[in-house]
Amino acid sequence: MKPINIVIDTNVLASGLRSSKGASYKLLTLIDNGDFIINISVPLFLEYESVTLRECLRLPLTKSDIEDILNYVAKVSCKREIFFLWRPFLKDPKDDLVLEVAVESESKVIVTYNKKDFVGVNKFGIKVLTPKEFLEKRGLLK
Known about the structure:
By secondary structure, the protein is of the alpha/beta class. 44% of the residues lie in helices and 13% in strands. The protein has a single domain, classed as Rossmann fold (3-Layer(aba) Sandwich), CATH 3.40.50. The protein has helices at residues 10-18, 23-29, 42-54, 63-76, 93-104, 131-137; strands at 4-8, 36-40, 78-79, 109-111, 127-129. The mean pLDDT is 91.
């Protein structure tokens, strides 16, 4: 299957760091397998960093572990510069960060647990899937 562009919402990243069980963790373990390409922007990455480091005490990882994981995510992701802001399109400006990267990168999928927050993004040709739905559609859930 040809790799597709995706954007991962912050809640999926945080969930994958919280537990080594579940679809979000599985998705994170596959980020460099060649089946999909993660796209980020500086503002989205800063949100990843802010949320995961703030939740550091609730995660089974040290601050150093989280920083290493974030550095790896940055290394393997496709960095996108946003030249056109779609704001305000969604209710939450932080969700607009995700949408802007998805539009700029021509991503086919936004992976999130908050599907209701992305109502209307289908007009950009973008599907909104949970980690489990995404992995199932790509044949990656075993």
